[in-house]
Amino acid sequence: MKHCYLTLILLLAATVTYAQNKATLIDTMLHRTNRLGLFKGNVMVVDKGKVIYKAPIGFTDASETQPLTTDYRFHIGSIAKEFNAVGIMLLKEEGKLDLDDKVSKYLPQLPNWAEKISIRNLLQYTSGLPDVNWKTVRGDADNMADLMKLTTLDFESGTHYAYNNNNVFLQRRIIEKISGMPFNKFVESKLLKPAGMSNSLVDPDDYTPLMAKSYDNNRKQGALIYPITGWTVVTLDDFYKWELALENFKLISPASTQILVTPFSPGKQCGLGGGTMQGNQLVFHKHDGISVQYQALLVGNKPKGRMVILMSNNKQNNIFDIDNAIEDILDGKPYVQPKKSILKDFQKQIDTLSGHQILALYHKLKQTNPDEYGFSNETTLNEIGYSLMNAKNIDAAITVFEYNTTLFPQSGNVFDSLGEAYLNKGDKAKALANYKRSLQLDPNNSTAKSVIEKLEVK
């Protein structure tokens, strides 16, 4: 019997040490990232159902005088759209709406186009509505006035995907119409309270206590009040409770959750961002959001009892790199330390250079600053290539993408990018060749399959 107790004690000690080692590695990686100026915010990591890391790393506002604590609330960008999506499904389960109902049923004051858009279209971003006019809209009334003046949709509802916030705006108005409650009160009473999220709220202002303020690298602070309302802000603990409520179907059923992770087409977003159901289990859930200088990411992996929550008030566009490093640490693999972005630091210079000059700059930085920038992964040159392509500098983009394929010849993604650049140039033969190579390396690349089919049609 003593032997059994000793074995149990040793196993428990080994488990605790293993978790501590992971936490130490995560802490080291995050503080290095912070010292490079690449992350400020709050972090939680759950592994095997246990919180193994939870920490604030940064400051509450642009003055950088008061350190963050884990009690601070953050805007989470598009992840806040989960609350209206879950609200819609909650009303559906109560028999108060059907997903095939038209918007006009609940908002009859809208023009005739509302008779063509279903609630399902709103959830899947296939309504055909244009986006909110962010330059002129200063409140919900302004946005509703714009919609009242709208005469035609951008495309026939249900035929294409266009991610924009008017789909979200109308979901919130429908919830208000059916429930008879302002959207913020609906969220507080029907979602936050049942999930045990006692420190979250909707639409904070400058006087809201314990609210992290977002700011850029020049210490310019962003606004807290947004053009349209309905944005839930959360703490680390409440964000964790929200994900547990989704995974354990505390608010809506597995069937409703399945609808919210089923996009219009592969790779597109839906009500919960992205996710995978297996039977009656939400096995994977991933959603990111950006708003002003806030950036957030939640990744849930229920079979592993794993969750990674990142909330930043100083957006650096690298939260996926940070998550990848954390996931590798949790899996016991070598991780890639997040690095600075060459594009971000040298954007103005890059915009004036040819493709070969950009590669010369890349090699110079590789010699002089090898530990600051990301030379060990494909992202560094790929994001430069896309920036060039967006600026219509296609030849320079092709030069950069071509070189990236020599650095990472086993990456389907870099060949996909090169194929896209050649397609934009009008060179269908080279586009086809590179898309085919991409598909060979990544058979799950649905985009490549679709483009190849179109290019091979004579």
From TrEMBL:
Signal peptide limits: 1-19
UniProt GO MF annotations: hydrolase activity
Keyword match Hydrolase: yes
SUPFAM superfamilies per UniProt: beta-lactamase/transpeptidase-like (SSF56601), TPR-like (SSF48452)
Residue ranges annotated for the Beta-lactamase-related domain, each copy included: 26-319
TPR repeat start and end residues: 412-445
SMART domains according to UniProt: TPR
Domain of life of the native organism: Bacteria
InterPro entries on file: AmpC-like, Beta-lactam-related, Beta-lactam/transpept-like, TPR-like_helical_dom_sf, TPR_2, TPR_rpt
Transmembrane segments: none
The entry's keywords: Hydrolase, Repeat, Signal, TPR repeat
Name this polypeptide is given: Serine hydrolase
